[in-house]
Design goal:
By secondary structure, the protein is α+β, with helices and mostly antiparallel strands. It has helices at residues 2-18, 60-74, 79-105, and strands spanning 38-53, 107-116, 121-127, 137-143, 149-153.
């Protein structure tokens, strides 16, 4: 029963920490970014590619999976076999935890190349919540607060 409580607690912590990802959407602003002036430049989309935004290297999934796998493996057999099962549980659990975390936190994104009216070309990767296509006229918003840029339809 104690093992089940530990597994549930670790799973809950992993789930809650996975929700700490920052949004990379054209439509979502943090409280700090709201009501702040942004510079706007017009441009034309030159190309659009699929991309993935991956949360910067956390160890939550790997660690949580390893702990859960180790606990699960320790319940198998006894003696030397139990140690081997625990070790394999840690390795397999860590690997699965990493894959699960990436599946939960990865965001579908677009890599958008924009030629600004000034002649400068820029590339912006943002969440794929708004579709863009080559030749489309767009606004590029540059935040004065967070030093980020977003592409938005005109």
């Amino acid at each position: 029963m104690q093992t089940v409580k530990v597994i549930i607690a670790l799973s809950l912590v992993t789930f809650l920490l996975g929700g700490c990802t920052q949004d990379r959407s054209t439509k979502i602003y943090t409280g700090k970014e709201a009501l702040q002036a942004e510079d706007v430049e017009e441009g034309t989309v030159e190309s659009v590619e699929q991309a993935i935004i991956r949360k910067d290297g956390t160890i939550v999934g790997t660690t949580g999976g390893g702990i859960i796998g180790g606990i699960a493996g320790s319940t198998v057999g006894g003696g030397k076999g139990q140690k081997i099962a625990s070790t394999l549980g840690v390795i397999l659990g860590g690997w699965l935890g990493d894959k699960i975390e990436k599946g939960v936190t990865d965001l579908e994104a677009l890599k958008i190349v924009v030629k600004l009216n000034s002649g400068q070309k820029i590339v912006i990767v943002q969440e794929a919540d708004v579709p863009f296509q080559a030749g489309e006229r767009v606004n590029v918003f540059s935040s004065r607060v967070s030093n980020t840029k977003r592409v938005s339809k005109l």
